[in-house]
Amino acid sequence: MKAFDAPRVPLRSANAKKLLAIINREYGTLAFCRKWLEEHMPKHLAALKNLVDAGIVNEYPPLSD
Fold first, then answer.
1. Which of 3, 6, 47, 64 could potentially form a cystine with 16 if both were Cys, beta carbons 3.0 to 4.6 Å apart?
2. For domain 14-54, which CATH number applies: 1.10.10.10, 2.40.30.10, 3.40.50.1000, 3.30.559.10?
3. pTM (2 decimals)?
């Protein structure tokens, strides 16, 4: 999920900027899973890792049933 108090970090990757715009528009600060991002951006893993490393998006382990 996107951190509520996420820092303003300059992103160098165009894909990371695009993915952040999608996350802001579709989910805001609500939790989401990687699978849901595939419909908006098929190759999103590197951009998502960039956002996690920058501290903009928090990662959580998958929930087991």
1. 47
2. 1.10.10.10
3. 0.84
